[in-house]
Amino acid sequence: SDVGRLLVRCPDGPGIVAAVSGLLHAHGANIAQSDQYSTSLEGGTFLMRVVFHLPGLAQRRAHLERAFAERVAADHDMTWSLHDAARPKRAAILVSREDHCLLDLLWRTRRGELELDVGLVVSNHDDLRRDVEPFGIDYHHVPITPDTKPAAEQRLLELLDGQVDVVILARYMQILSGDLLERLGVPVINIHHSFLPAFVGAQPYAQARARGVKLVGATAHYVTEELDAGPIIEQDVARVSHRDDVPALIAVGRDIERTVLARAVAWHAADRVIVHDGTTVVL
Amino acid sequence: SDVGRLLVRCPDGPGIVAAVSGLLHAHGANIAQSDQYSTSLEGGTFLMRVVFHLPGLAQRRAHLERAFAERVAADHDMTWSLHDAARPKRAAILVSREDHCLLDLLWRTRRGELELDVGLVVSNHDDLRRDVEPFGIDYHHVPITPDTKPAAEQRLLELLDGQVDVVILARYMQILSGDLLERLGVPVINIHHSFLPAFVGAQPYAQARARGVKLVGATAHYVTEELDAGPIIEQDVARVSHRDDVPALIAVGRDIERTVLARAVAWHAADRVIVHDGTTVVL
Amino acid sequence: SDVGRLLVRCPDGPGIVAAVSGLLHAHGANIAQSDQYSTSLEGGTFLMRVVFHLPGLAQRRAHLERAFAERVAADHDMTWSLHDAARPKRAAILVSREDHCLLDLLWRTRRGELELDVGLVVSNHDDLRRDVEPFGIDYHHVPITPDTKPAAEQRLLELLDGQVDVVILARYMQILSGDLLERLGVPVINIHHSFLPAFVGAQPYAQARARGVKLVGATAHYVTEELDAGPIIEQDVARVSHRDDVPALIAVGRDIERTVLARAVAWHAADRVIVHDGTTVVL
Amino acid sequence: SDVGRLLVRCPDGPGIVAAVSGLLHAHGANIAQSDQYSTSLEGGTFLMRVVFHLPGLAQRRAHLERAFAERVAADHDMTWSLHDAARPKRAAILVSREDHCLLDLLWRTRRGELELDVGLVVSNHDDLRRDVEPFGIDYHHVPITPDTKPAAEQRLLELLDGQVDVVILARYMQILSGDLLERLGVPVINIHHSFLPAFVGAQPYAQARARGVKLVGATAHYVTEELDAGPIIEQDVARVSHRDDVPALIAVGRDIERTVLARAVAWHAADRVIVHDGTTVVL
Prior knowledge:
The structure is a homotetramer.
Chain A: E1 3-11, H1 16-26, E2 30-38, E3 45-53, H2 57-76, E4 79-84, E5 89-95, H3 100-111, E6 116-123, H4 129-132, E7 138-141, H5 149-160, E8 166-169, H6 178-184, E9 188-192, H7 204-211, E10 215-222, E11 232-239, H8 246-269, E12 273-276, E13 279-282
Parallel strand pairs in A: 5-6, 5-8, 6-7, 8-9
Antiparallel strand pairs in A: 1-3, 1-4, 2-3, 9-10, 10-11, 12-13
């Protein structure tokens, strides 16, 4: 506790670091870690993540935010946010029938590896209820058919609106409408079961096998209205061979998917991901 | 020496292994290694690579081949080839201006890592002559422009025809015509500077950066008339981050390219790659 | 079903493959996959794994085994075993307090990734009972103290003797006595929480951090009476940095441990591991 | 050009970042990248690397250093150094007979991948002269036998003293005496052909094979008087199997060795490595 994290994005220019660190110092904060990145040495965008220790952060946060807004952010045209590391992000996990990503997230959260407070799991099937409830988490079954999609999305919105800071699609096989994404107003993280941008679309493992690829991969990304095109947070691959038939590829893929999604969620939950210009910077 | 390698492809069915191993045994060969693969348990294709030790192989090879053709291959409708491990494959390397794949192949060949006898290097530029000639290998400068392409390909054909068992494109930035490929009549191995099938085409590293991918890759494949679509032999990736600008991605890419190409060439030279149904099986 | 696997180890010499494949062929079996390995071209040991399809295997197995013993194995001084792929291995999992390896094995078994029939979980603590029982698997609490070790091992033996084909130590923090290992008479697989042979002993992550290593690893091996020295089945590593303190290293280690153990168990369950001369050959 | 790099190590405490960035800002520098690390939140050591852009750095450097020493470093008890990125480090490479690490370093330097100015290569054999001289680099043959070691080290010292900023042991099979190390007074980087701390000593690949390990590795480290125990800069591994005999392991090892050494040298040359408490922090 008493650890804060500051994320900053602004046009690059001289004196930004000095201004940020000076203000934090003046308020009694001690900087423990700071990562910065400029998209270009001339006229680029400056991105920064600062982790600091400030006794009494919870009480002093509003005051610090006001000072930062007035005395630093305004001068440098900053987009910024300040996070209290003691408050885990409230999360909902959406899932269909496959359990590997869901169980890995729940287990890691229980372990303390993810700074999450998982409030609910929502699925368009009832299959995984018995796996979720022992974790003490509510399980909501919201079936979706083409006909009922608007009503189902309305139900989703009621469950999630104002209740969560992030939504995680852990092999949720429904496409969220642009309207729903907009009304949710929080980041939505998806795991795509292939190495984007290769094998966009359905049945990537069958595509990969037909092409004879020697690696299969997975991609975690923020969801945007354009399918499979949101900013990539993390990717990884595993080696396969001709001996791996499609079920074997799918099994290998499950390992990569759960690992990649867990890493992406961990980074998001630790305020390490800044979206910029259609891609991400992980600091 | 006295080590032979037999590659077999045929419709699957009972008794193939017994027939092959029985004939080799009857001729005094001792099987040291055997790898087999069936594309499906029912009605598939059977692929096999056998490494055997046969004293006096060089003298007895023609006899063995005749016997194999008559008594085994015909019964099982086999496509097959028999290789003497003591005879390295005669190779030509084609290159443009980038030296990393070329030099790595020459270093590895000199060190004995690749079962190659590199007879010549051909380039459409003269830049790399001074790097190649110290290896005692002929360097041929065959410029190509859109106008002179037919004559240049004719010159390539004169240099290569009957002289080589394999052609390696080590960052050769010209497209070989289907006509030339056919008249060469030997396998052509290419290194593609991206993780196929993603980023087909030019400037894959700029594409990758724009997309924010977290891994860059390379693909070694046999060349077919259809660009970037030949059977994949090997692929690999390396991790990158937002800190890597396009030149940095290219530098990382060079490492992957030379490693992937060297592995593919090593496997081809060791008769480990069987092409089947548009993909490869590496045994 | 109707898929058999034959594991063979014998002194190398001519005609082994022909004899094995000939006998299988004569009994109507079709060889789907065969992997062989000779430890040396002269006077070495020959190791072989054959996967075959034989209609009615369950009924014909005893007959086939008898024929193989008499007509092939005796001539070549073989150590061999024949397995019916339709019969998953009966397994016990021993665990102490850490759940990551245990849960991963249970999830994978339920999903059909491991050819196991997990009959029971035994622990020297009662902590994980609530995680295990929802899988429908018996949980036995067998406490062990230095004073009660003989009685506790006797209790273990009663639970396991004749009931299992393999015992898996999934972070079981007790050392099995040589006497118990011998009386169990089945393979015991352990996951060691470091990259053997480095960091033998306790607190490997603290050791690794003090030494500033850039990778942490895990090792799955068969248990022998000599601690940490049994034949290695599988190993892997993950990248770490100075930013990872000991708890972070342990978290990274958990991922490697469960993955390495699951791979080793999968290979063992699929009859792919042959122990030879203090090490393993994975075919 | 005009890019500087500042490395700082000091007892942790409030206001360090503000002081450093404030001074740089006051001198007209723009911070492009900054990485910090505290060994502990309470009473730890603070490490920092700052990359900044300062027009006219070469002319203004002495002035900046004086100001930094007086107004920042003294207050915080800092160990620090300031580097001009436009001045590559002067390097000597020491090698015995194996060429893979040497050639890779020379080729990468020529490519512009390493911020090095390689002034000379020294070897206890004359074998690699013909590979080095085409790069336009002096090759010195300094034979060493047990009897001539003091004289040979004296000759080494004459060649290197005051001429280089770093010495790279690229598979140099002689042990440098503690006396020589001290008199050289510059960092010495070594590539150790195994995954330290496993397989300390000679013939690590034969040791690895006997133990049946599934990965082989290499370690780049700073040389200290205690053999194989200096601070680790980088490590990596590659997967191997029972099919890899000792020569094959050595070939795989060469790839890892050259890659790991090149990475360690690149980081050192880019002022990214800070030694602290017997280990390294790579920022």
